[in-house]
Amino acid sequence: MERPLTVLRVSLHHPTKAPAIFATVPSRLQHDTSPLLVGRSLDCHLQLQLPRLSRQHLSLEPYRERGSALLAFSLKALSRRGCVWVNGLTLRFLEQVPLSTVNWVAFSGVQMVIHVELGTSLEAFACCFFVSPSPLIYRPQAKESDEWEDIPQALPAPGSEKQAPGYLGSLRRPSQTGDSPPQPSTGGGTEIQLQREPADS
């Protein structure tokens, strides 16, 4: 009897909503237990057409924890020039972090929400991709880091108390530096500002 696959349900968002960015994204991709590569290169399993994206920007890497009969996953940064943000943590070249059941990822102006649905197969896994028509995402849960200031807990706008917890609002166009996470707009919902700490003068 064939064992059910672990499924990664990946929602893709981009502030510009340019259709060409996600033109080559499949709706479903089945993959063996080797790393699944994301980037601009034709060798990547998930190709995104972004000029600031590295040829191989990141990878989703399945592995087995000791004593576990299920696959677990980590996300590894492969870009030498850009960062990847995972659940509030900043990853630089060759750094990686294990994924939890729900994960918020940002890189090169793209936002991904990855839901992991565990299966029992140890031979392969599947990715189901959903390209969102909206750049709305949920607020990441910030963790301790020397890189970022604490995220202020702004009060919700009047009349917005019934919105879903963690609702972020629409996002601005990403900066041109390639090293900044997406910034929320002043639209509805809770406003979050992620900023680098000012350098000592």
UniProtKB/TrEMBL annotation:
<dbReference type="InterPro" id="IPR008984">
    <property type="entry name" value="SMAD_FHA_dom_sf"/>
</dbReference>
<feature type="region of interest" description="Disordered">
    <location>
        <begin position="147"/>
        <end position="201"/>
    </location>
</feature>
<dbReference type="Pfam" id="PF00498">
    <property type="entry name" value="FHA"/>
</dbReference>
<dbReference type="InterPro" id="IPR033621">
    <property type="entry name" value="TIFA"/>
</dbReference>
<dbReference type="GO" id="GO:0043123">
    <property type="term" value="P:positive regulation of canonical NF-kappaB signal transduction"/>
</dbReference>
<feature type="domain" description="FHA">
    <location>
        <begin position="36"/>
        <end position="91"/>
    </location>
</feature>
<dbReference type="InterPro" id="IPR000253">
    <property type="entry name" value="FHA_dom"/>
</dbReference>
<protein>
    <submittedName>
        <fullName>TRAF-interacting protein with FHA domain-containing protein B</fullName>
    </submittedName>
</protein>
